Each structure stands twice: as C-alpha cells, then as structure tokens.
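Consider the tokenized backbone below.
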C-alpha cells in the first residue's frame, strides 16, 4: 500500500483491508453542492476507487461561502459544478476515477442513471427534501445502501440506510423535514462540514465491513448540540418501501412544468430547443457559455440550461410563474 494513505490505514478498524475495499468501491454522489462537494473531496483524498457525481447547477458566487473547492473563477465562467469539481478533484488525487454527470436527477431518469453507472453505494448531497424519497425507493429496489444527509440553518442530520431499513419512509415522523431551505433560512458553513464528515464516516464503517451505525445523527453547529439516536426500533412494519416494496414515486414518474424553488425562485421546464432559441424571447442575454445563458426580463433574472430548464429569480407567486411560462412557450412556437 502506498505511503499516501498510511495514516488512515494505521487506524486499526479501517486498516489495510478497509483501504483495499475503499479503492474497489464505486460511490455515486447525488448533488455537487455544499454536501456533495465536501463528501467528494474527502473521498478523493482518502483514495476511493471510483466516484460518479451528478448535478445540474452551475457555480454561482453565492455558493462560494460553503461549497468545497469552487472558486471565483468557476463562478465567473459559469462552469457546471460537476465540471469544476472533477477538475479540482483530479488535481488532488489522480488515482481516483471520476465521472461527472451534468444532468438533473428526476423520477424519470433516476433508474436509467443507476442502470448506466452501477454504483455500489449512494451518498446524498441533494438540497431539497422530496427527491430523497425517490432516492429511498430506487436504493431499496436495487438493494443499494445509501447515506442520507441534510443541512439547513445551523442544523444537520445524517443517517445510513440499508436494505433492511428502517428506511427514510419509516422515519418520516422522526426526521425533521419541513419546508426549510437554505435560500430562505440560510445555512452556516460549519454544519455542512459536520454533515459531510458524518456521511463519510458512515461510508468508512460500511467499506470496513462494520455496516452503518443505525444511528440518526443530529447536530446544531450554533447551539453545539450533537445527538445520536438509535434507530433500530423505528422500523415501520407496514412501510411501503422497505417492507412492502411499493415504489410509488418511481412507478408514477411525473414532472411538473413549473416548480417552486428556494426563496423567490421558480424552475420552469421548456423543450430542450429553448437553449438554442432564446433569440425568440423578449429577453436580454447578459452572459452565456456552452452550458448556460443568464438573461434579464422585466425585474427577473433567469438562467437557461442546455436541457431546457430555466431558473427564474424574482418571481412572487405561482400565477406569475405560469404567466411567464405560457408567454415564453408562445414565443417559441
Ligand atoms: Zn421503511
């Protein structure tokens, strides 16, 4: 074994065999934002075998206070996070095989993504709650272990979930879901590090053959509270997912054309051709690159992505979002 990993190998419970296992593990990280980028950095430094990272966002200045490895140059160039991250990670450890997937993760493509990349384990780096129930279903269906991680405000939660459960659905009542989001409530960077570290700790236990801790970890990086709750008793014997194997989200894929996002933002989904045809819209293109176009219309700022998604900032309600959507669809006809 190379000198490079000597210090972690000297930790007995991990040891040579844990390192060997890690180097033969393919981890898929869903999301390359705050949690995903930190998990990716730690795993790359530790010498994971293969990393596949999925994300659809570009680097923005407002990400830089909490997201690992991104810098001002990436934000100025509007680089996709996965592209910027892959480049940085490869400088840190060229032994790791890194695949960047610049794609939105939805219930219409998640199964194809799993079938295409065949990861051994999934790490949660998503920033909205609903998608995690989808991850919960796909992981149970394919018997993939996954590590749930979430952070908002000063609070974080981590839980490693395997096939036997209790799964995320079992814990519905226990896990603080709420509509809290980073854009509304903000987030303190230290809690990101704590959650990402705990996610990687669960992964280390798993690769070392100890299995997940089966503890729900909760932390508050401001009040300085840290708790570990034993979850074994919380298995729901009627759970749709980990008992009955019913995958409601996966089996009824549906995609909304208009979705409320964090703060005053909406996500609008257009036909893919939008990206090449923004000239038809009554907008001013402020900046653009092969991945994204930033535009202005009235008091709104919008970013259009190659797949036809548009993030609109500065919209007050769903009605306004719908009116804008319909107007733009007409322009494209
Ligand atoms: Zn369950």
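A designed sequence for it:
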């Amino acid at each position: 074994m190379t000198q490079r990993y000597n210090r972690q190998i000297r930790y007995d419970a991990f040891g040579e065999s844990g390192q060997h296992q890690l180097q033969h593990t393919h981890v898929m990280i869903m999301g390359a934002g705050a949690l995903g980028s930190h998990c990716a950095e730690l795993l790359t430094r530790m010498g994971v075998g293969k990393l596949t990272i999925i994300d659809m966002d570009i680097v923005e200045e407002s990400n830089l206070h909490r997201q690992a490895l991104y810098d001002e140059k990436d934000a100025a160039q509007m680089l996709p996070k996965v592209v910027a991250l892959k480049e940085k990670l490869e400088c840190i450890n060229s032994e790791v095989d890194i695949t960047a997937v610049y794609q939105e993760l939805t219930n219409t493509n998640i199964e194809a993504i799993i079938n295409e990349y065949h990861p051994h384990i999934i790490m949660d780096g998503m920033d909205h709650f609903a998608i995690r129930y989808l991850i919960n279903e796909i992981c149970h269906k394919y018997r993939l272990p996954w590590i749930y991680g979430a952070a908002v405000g000063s609070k974080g939660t981590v839980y490693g979930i395997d096939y036997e459960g209790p799964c995320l659905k079992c814990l519905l009542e226990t896990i603080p879901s709420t509509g809290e989001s980073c854009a509304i409530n903000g987030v303190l960077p230290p809690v990101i590090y704590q959650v990402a570290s705990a996610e990687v700790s669960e992964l280390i236990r798993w690769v070392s053959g100890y299995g997940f801790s089966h503890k729900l970890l909760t932390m508050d990086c401001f009040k300085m509270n840290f708790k570990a709750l034993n979850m074994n008793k919380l298995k729901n014997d009627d759970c749709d997912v980990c008992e009955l194997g019913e995958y409601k989200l996966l089996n009824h894929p549906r995609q909304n054309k208009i979705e409320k996002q964090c703060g005053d933002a909406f996500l609008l989904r257009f036909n893919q051709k939008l990206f090449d045809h923004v000239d038809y819209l009554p907008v001013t293109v402020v900046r653009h690159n092969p991945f994204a176009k930033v535009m202005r219309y009235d008091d709104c700022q919008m970013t259009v992505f190659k797949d036809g998604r548009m993030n609109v900032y500065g919209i007050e309600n769903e009605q306004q979002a719908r009116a804008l959507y319909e107007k733009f669809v007409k322009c494209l006809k």
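The domain at 258-332 is CATH 3.30.310 (TATA-Binding Protein).
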